[in-house]
Amino acid sequence: MRKVELKGLTKSYDGKQDVLKAIDVTIEPGEFFVLVGPSGCGKSTMLRMIAGLESITAGELALDGKRANALSPSDRDLSMVFQNYALYPHLTVEQNITFGLHVKKISKKEQKARCEEVCAMLGLTDYMKRKPKELSGGQRQRVALARAVVTQAPLCLMDEPLSNLDAKLRAKMRSEIRQLQRKLGITMIYVTHDQTEAMTMADRMMILSGGDVQQIGRPLDVYNNPANTFVASFIGSPPMNLIEAEISDSVLVADGHWMTPITADMKAKLQTDKVTLGVRPEHISLAKDSEPGFLVQVANVEVLGTETLVTFDFGEDTQWIAKWNGQSDIQPGAQIRIAVDDHHLALYSTETGERIYCQASEQAAEKKVSS
Amino acid sequence: MSIGKKVLLYMALTVSGLVMVFPILYAFLISFMQGGEVLQGSLWPESFSLANYFSAFERVPLLTYLWNSLVVSVLIMVGQLVLCSLAAFAFVFIEFKGREWIFYLFISTMMIPWEATMVPNFQTVQSLGWLNSYAGLTIPFFAMAFGTFLLRQQFKTIPKELYEASQIAGISKLRFFTGVVLPVAKTTITTLAIYSFLTAWNMYLWPLLVTNNEANRTVQIGLKQMQTQEIASDWGVVMAGVVMVILPTLILLFAGQKRLQEGLTQGALK
Amino acid sequence: MTVIRQEATSGSTGDWHLERKRAWSNWMTGMMFLLPSLILFGVFLFYPMVRTVYLSLFLTDSQGVPVVFVGWENFVNLFQSTSFQLSAKATALFVLYTVPAGIVLATALAILANQKLRGIGLFRTMFSATMGMSVAASSVIWMFLFNPSIGLFNRILAALNIPGVQWLLDPQYALLSVSVATIWMNTGFAFLILLGGLQNIDQSLYESARIAGVSESYKLRKITLPMLSPTLFFVTTVSLINAFQTFGQIDLLTRGGPMESTNVIVYSIYKDAFINYNVGSASAQAVLLFVAVLIVTVLQFKIGERKVHYQ
Q1: For strand A58-63 and strand A66-67, is the pairing parallel, antiparallel, or unpaired?
Q2: Which range marks the domain in which residue A295 is found?
Q3: Is the same domain home to A173 and A265?
Q4: Of A9, B269, C69, C84, which alpha carbon lies 20 to 30 A from C239's?
Q5: Which residue of chain B is at minimal alpha-carbon distance from C131?
Q6: Pairing relation of β-strands A78-81 and A204-209?
Q7: For residue B99, which residues of chain C lie inside 8 Å, CB to CB?
Q8: Of A226, A254, A271, which marks where a domain is finished?
């Protein structure tokens, strides 16, 4: 187990533009920490800086409290799994797994024992004599995992390890990797562009965009309280619905005629009369007859079996998505009346995208106070 | 493809193929002919007797020459493979100050025609006491820009993650070179080996300059000797010598033709 | 922000030491890998090139030791000597005879051999066979073919009732004869590379052309040749440089004669340096050869960059 601290960690290739801007975070021992963001956000760069494969332009990297900025990769006592697995094509599975162990002064006997152990753990025992090209994608992935596990390094870095697998296998490996990490009790830093992986695997996650930290937190906290519109639209599938709204008196008006009341408490926090309103798809429902509702036209319907995604036109050029449990028989083109759960509204500044108000966070804060 | 077009193509291929190989084939045939047959201008020997071959081995120390050529070619081949792969590895996997500059230095060597430097080279080899020695025949050719570029192209296709993975594992550069890069680039290295051997075996001007006794002469210079001596009029014997010289390289070429073609195209174009 | 950054970088001199140590060790390792090549290039290419330029400015004794500095005199003498003028002319003609014809021939063979036909491998082997032939062996064979009394060419002429020709002994024909032999010798190499270039062309281009229904010659002009141009460019450069460096076939077939009609530049250098022991003059010619090759390379790249279509 290993603690990883980043203090103002900055990376610049040309000395002018920073691809990573003063990142501050502490990754606790034994934590499964996920770096997530769109491609080009700097997440892989950050991982490679921790690995020692990229130099650190400014700031400090500490491993277990010791400054590690200039340590060579091999002196950091970590393992890494690459997106393309980086298996040596001319070596067998066994040779791949034990390759480099001699450097750590591990005896041949011990190497063999360790290799057999991890192969058993990962279901590779029958494939130890094969070459990588004779393995399926999933098996190669496991060899890459085995190679990381066999070193018994207390810190493991993974760079998009599942992105070359098909969807079904990916879901399976997600859970396997998570179980493995728990079993070994190692610290894991995991890079992905897939928010589902981040949500399902992380103890905590960091959302990066354009080299800036957008939010750090536990998956559910991030999901319930996105710090800004970027996180709101990045985390969650389908993402949070967003639209610009105006405040008049004690109502919020979107698209000219849809209104929802706002509380005094809410209003007190708003300094402007223009905000971006966010609603999660699951907080939109069909309005009951007694409820106030809002008439929209259905553009598309996706029935997934246990749930139904309904896309409808909202405003001039905005489409919203609602997610309902069960199988709905609404047809595209239909006019439906929808209601929004006003206990789950989130308001963001239209200028900066920062969160101004979020019901869930207020509730969480209240709970803390009362307990 | 229509039948007519196919027939036409085969005819064109056959005619041009025969024209191209005729001189080689003819040399083979003459090597079995008696003196009289050659003078009459026969195209086919009356019998395939090996008399000319025995005669060739008797009249010039062909075996010594062949052996010298073999040693020289293998030495040059090994030397070039070692030096080229070392240099190519440095250009791809080791980052250091001045690497770019050295790379341009390597490129610039391609612009110096080797023949323009032969006079001082001869003097150097002479003052090193390397005349009539394998060292003088081989060492000047160990460094080769073309081979370095060819291998550099190949090494660049090795995913950089392989290098990074071994860096994390703490494997030394030399060990990564011998344990990963060389085995992975096996095919291209074989291609370069064939090319090196062919070129070295066929070398003419330099062996002519630095050898002047029979003990160290290569087989190409042996041919010149055969042709200028009185046996020159005995064409059957001369052609037997020619066949002995071209047989190894032709076999090598036929075996490695596809590889050579792929390898050379790769080196030429990227 | 900038303040923080300065603090961070100057904060630990340990980092700086470690990084410097690593850069130094990388440099050392890099040089260890490159040194063998660098030393040999230095001793057997760069030094002799500089030495050649140096020697070209001196009068030398028979051992090649520079005796008197004469400046440009060697060059002036060269340009005034008919012998050198003949040599320059022979070289230029030799390049002109061998390079264009050789490339056209190799290209035609490569296109012919790029068909998907049964047994095409055999033809490819036949076309590339000369690559395995040494200059010496090839020259001996062509010597026989050119033989005035029993050689094949004169026999063919005789069969056609045309008087025989002294192919290698007649100043009118000697250079042409050597050129024909040279084209044959160089075809294998050029063919192999051009065939490789053809096979690298994306087949979908031809498939879409087939759907469009264009003619064969249109395909050749609009797809094959443009897509082959980088390869052609490379082969042309190599052939030109090779032509300038020709030696073996001259030495074996004509020894520069008759009447110096085949005394191409490298043979002339060889003769001056190792037969006439006039190292100064040989060096001056070597410098000119170097300049010629340099000009060709630079021109090729200047023209090539503009005209060649790279994939």
Answers
A1: antiparallel
A2: 230-370
A3: no
A4: C84
A5: B253
A6: unpaired
A7: 30
A8: A226
Using the beta-carbon criterion (under 8 Å), do A72 and C22 form an inter-chain contact? yes
The verdict on B159 touching A (C-beta cutoff 8 Å) is yes
Judge whether residue C112 has pLDDT over 80: yes
Length of chain B: 270
Count of domains forming chain B = 1
Q: Please name the amino acid found at residue C167.
A: W
Cα separation of C198 and C25, whole Å? 45
Phi and psi at residue C59, to the nearest 5°? -90, 135
Q: Are residues A134 and A82 in the same domain?
A: yes
Cβ-based contacts of C282 with chain B (< 8 Å): 119
Owning domain of residue B109: 55-269
Residues A222 and A239 in one domain: no
Instruction: Quote ipTM for the complex.
Output: 0.89
**The domain that contains A265 carries what CATH number?**
2.40.50.140
User: Which of A226, A241, A271 is the last residue before a domain boundary?
Assistant: A226
Tell me if B21 is assigned to some domain: no
CATH number at residue B202: 1.10.3720.10
pLDDT lower than 70: segments of chain B:
230-232, 266-270
Residues A284 and A214 in one domain: no
CA distance A103 to chain B (A): 6
Residue B46 domain-assigned?
A: no
Classify each residue of B209-240 as buried b or exposed e, where b means 16 or more C-beta atoms within 10 Å of its C-beta: bbbeeeebbbbbbbbbbbbeeebeebbbbbbb
Residue B49, in any domain of the structure: no
- Give the end-to-end CA distance of chain B in Å, rounded to a whole number: 34
**pLDDT digit string, tens, across residues B31-57:** 998 888 888 878 888 888 888 899 888
Counted across chains A and B, CB pairs separated by less than 8 A come out at: 59
Tens of pLDDT, residue by residue over B118-163, are 999 999 999 999 999 999 999 999 999 989 998 998 899 899 999 9
Q: Is pLDDT at A220 greater than 70 in this prediction?
A: yes
Please tell me whether residues A148 and A40 are part of one structural domain.
yes
Q: Is A71 a residue whose pLDDT tops 60? A: yes
Both A239 and A99 in one domain: the answer is: no
Return residues 4-33 of C near A (CB < 8 Å): 4-5, 8-9, 11-12, 14-16, 18-19, 22
| Average pLDDT score over residue span C138-156 | 91
Q: What is the pLDDT of residues C181-229, one digit of tens each?
A: 999 999 999 999 899 889 888 888 888 888 888 888 888 888 888 888 8
Q: What are the DSSP E strand ranges found in A54-210?
A: 58-63, 66-67, 78-81, 155-159, 187-192, 204-209
Tell me how close the Cα of B167 comes to any Cα of chain A, in angstroms.
6
Please tell me the predicted confidence (pLDDT) of residue A358.
Answer: 72
Distance CA C247, CA C263 (A): 10
Domain co-membership, A173 together with A251: no
Domain presence at residue B7: no
The tokens 């909202």 sit on which residue? Answer: A314
- Number of domains chain A contains: 2
What's the CA gap between C107 and C50, in Å, rounded?
38
Q: Are residues A220 and A309 in the same domain?
A: no
| Per-residue pLDDT tens over the stretch C1-40 | 444 444 444 446 778 888 888 889 999 999 999 999 999 9
Closest-CA distance, B247 to chain C, in angstroms, reads: 9
